[in-house]
Design a protein that fits this description.
The complex is a heterodimer.
Chain A lengths: L5 E5 L6 H11 L6 E6 L4 H12 L2 E8 L2 E7 L14 E3 L9 E4 L3 H5 L7 E2 L18 E4 L4 H12 L5 E5 L14
Parallel strand pairs in A: 1-2, 5-9, 6-7, 6-8, 8-9
Antiparallel strand pairs in A: 2-4, 3-4
Chain B lengths: L3 E6 L4 H16 L3 E6 L24 H7 L5 H10 L3 E5 H7 L11 E3 L1 H8 L5 E3 L1
Parallel strand pairs in B: 1-2, 1-5, 2-3, 3-4
The chains are: A alpha/beta, B alpha/beta.
Chain lengths: 183, 131
Amino acid sequence: MIQANHLLDAKGLACPMPIVKTKKAITDIDEGQVLEIQATDKGSKADLAAWASSVGHQYLGTVEEGDVLYHYIRKGSNEPEVEKAFEQTVPLEEIESREGLILDVREAAEYAFGHIKGAKSIPMGELESRLTELDKEQDVYVICRTGKRSDLAAQLLAKNGFTKVYNVLPGMSEWNGNITKEV
Amino acid sequence: MSNKVAIIAANGGMFDAYKVFNIATAAAASEKEVQIFFTFEGLNLIHKQAMHHLEMPAGKEHFAEGFVKANIPSIPQLVEMAQELGVKFIACQMTMDVMGLTKEDFVDGIEVGGAVTFLEFAKDAAPTLTF
């Protein structure tokens, strides 16, 4: 199952209820967190994708199992774009020619709906407690959606003694190469 | 891009009510500012008693079963939800005068206004819809 921070059960509800319920549910969660919406309304897939893009959230994708649709939406941020601070960067188009580990620090659900083949998933929020899974001798290419979370992740790694760390810019939002899915 | 959706509800059947309130609640949930101008038969949709007994078009009564089966919310539920989401209801003063209705005949929280009240809101709304 795909990991989400919050769950909304909208099964059995007809349009426009899944949207109305989603709007209410997403108000209560933190920016950057992922909401899973379970619905049986077949129209909810197109509706939620359109709704998310119109109000500034990130529609990650939908998994169908039997009659139930499992939708994943990541709450958007209203924060202004911050200056990226980590100096060692690598342009996205060079990523495939590099040797080393691609570390994807997006949420697990974002990773599940599409990542670069071979990339390792450690969501930003879990990185500090999972540092032992990484090798300091290996080049680490940190990637997220737009370069913001990976900037913070790269700083965190550097602070913990990793020297061969690079922030991949801009990030998965501009990736046109092959992707691997886990759904 | 306009952040306003303006709706004119001019008909009083059950199908009309669903068209109006589904679009209105969906728009409000998408963070649009929504106003509905209820005029002529459209006033049924927010009339305290009439909204519970809206009629299906002649010959289409068999759809009642479909509404139940698809678990469609009732019109009074949708009205409440629309108001909760901040949709503003304006009842047409002129129609109310013609039909001998007062503000108390309608659900709480409505405003009464004339055509200009609505036009002022609708002048920069996109889309403006008529049902």
